[in-house]
């Protein structure tokens, strides 16, 4: 029997939703339970879900489920809805474009939105050199195409990624990704000539940026050979790997070495890009200018769009027709991106991300002073995390899982990450209110207290 679920009329407008945590049923509620059963019967069990609820509306800093529960959103769909859900600049642009046309395929019959997004990214990304852009559908596609471009340009095949890095779920990007479970286990073999270098992890290794870079460079030169390396790819702040912020000087040293050795330096800013860290792109924090930069997530306010932007001579190297795809740079997604880029400016979201960092850091520092299980607080802007450890300083994944589950049932969406599964990450939409953010962190504090040893 068919079951149709719609949002109540007073919940229909995303930005107009009451900005409150409200639990009218247990989590999950009865209607979500029905959808969970339907999902189990219809969807591959390989597609997991973290929250045991089904959404019908979202906006500001909340997600509302089918049972009428309003949850505080500290996940942003994994750093996607930076401008919030249903930002008016995004929705109006999408509606206008849908009325014009939905698809022609840019490589068949091109259209203005694709070019306008490329022009904007060429202007906004780090560096004042001449640039070109190609658009795709997902972060993994962007990464895969960046590697293709770098290999074509250099005529070399080896690629270096870093410990704890995450770059996607396609065959090539699984090879680049460090964590086996759940991303790689059982899916090999992976693309060849991919190598891994040690990451700067200040909380764990105690090395300065220069020391960590020297260690990584020594490994690349001795174990691979700079004459074989087409590209190194790195997240300026690692996402799934644990929100690891490398020590100051690490990224600039890698970029310098790459430039001096004919190696394409690729910054994977899929998660860090678009105001998430308090700058438009995290590479800017240390003046790093990538040869290529991969972008997705926050680019289009929730619609599927990704990009590779970089030096013109590198991006122009592949033959005509070598890059593309049926849906890459879809007109609806490019319209959304233009709306989102306007929202970042009009709403001053760079400044807002820095304000949110101040709130998060203050709240977490106070919490850490009372709870030694918070081993580290790190991140930038609205991309912050705590690493949870046991009494001996070892990663405590079990505690992390219990804390996350407590938050979920209490009406707060939080995400975990880290190679050892012991990091709670905070990725609130930049449209969240101060009060909701503080309340959400308060629930994390309650969860820790409820799981005291």
UniProtKB/TrEMBL annotation:
SUPFAM superfamilies in the record: PLP-dependent transferases
Pathway given in the UniProt record: Amino-acid degradation; 4-aminobutanoate degradation
EC nos: 2.6.1.19, 2.6.1.22
A Pfam family it matches: Aminotran_3
GO BP: gamma-aminobutyric acid metabolic process
Top-level taxon: Bacteria
One of the record's GO molecular function terms: identical protein binding
Gene3D superfamilies in the cross-refs: Aspartate Aminotransferase, domain 1 (3.90.1150.10), Type I PLP-dependent aspartate aminotransferase-like (Major domain) (3.40.640.10)
Record-linked CDD domains: OAT_like
Keyword Oxidoreductase: no
Keywords, in A-Z order: Aminotransferase, Pyridoxal phosphate, Transferase
Cofactor list: pyridoxal 5'-phosphate
Family: Belongs to the class-III pyridoxal-phosphate-dependent aminotransferase family.
Protein name, per record: (S)-3-amino-2-methylpropionate transaminase
Lineage: Bacteria, Bacillati, Actinomycetota, Actinomycetes, Micrococcales
